[in-house]
Design brief:
There is one protein chain. The protein is α+β, with helices and mostly antiparallel strands and 87 residues long. The chain has one domain (10-86). It is built from one helix and five strands. The protein has one helix spanning 71-86; strands at 10-11, 17-21, 24-30, 42-48, 62-64. Strands 1-2-3-4-5 form a five-stranded antiparallel beta sheet, with helices on one face. The protein is globular and about 35 Å long. The two termini are 16 Å apart.
Length: 87
């Protein structure tokens, strides 16, 4: 049986938790009221890095989070989903 290892959860300059997986950044984004188009406060964002030399990311989905799971739980679930697609 293999042991699951998870990437470290980092905090970006805006205070948002994220993890890196290969060339992808998975972030929990918190939105101010005027930009919270779904009225949920938190969004899961999944974006690919433009290249391996910068931290610039391309556009990706903003998925509304409609439950009270912790940011860590949401990040790890998204990581496991992506890991299954590249295994």
């Amino acid at each position: 049986m293999t042991q699951n290892t998870f990437p470290a959860i980092e905090i970006d300059g805006s205070g948002q938790p994220f993890i890196r997986f290969e060339n992808v950044r998975i972030t929990i984004s918190k939105r101010p009221a005027d930009k919270d188009w779904e009225g949920v406060d938190r969004y899961l964002t999944i974006r690919a890095y433009r290249d391996n030399t910068t931290n610039h990311v391309l556009m990706g989905p903003d998925i509304p989070i409609r439950n009270d799971r912790s940011d860590a739980d949401i990040l790890m679930a998204a990581y496991m989903m992506l890991k299954l697609t590249v295994a």
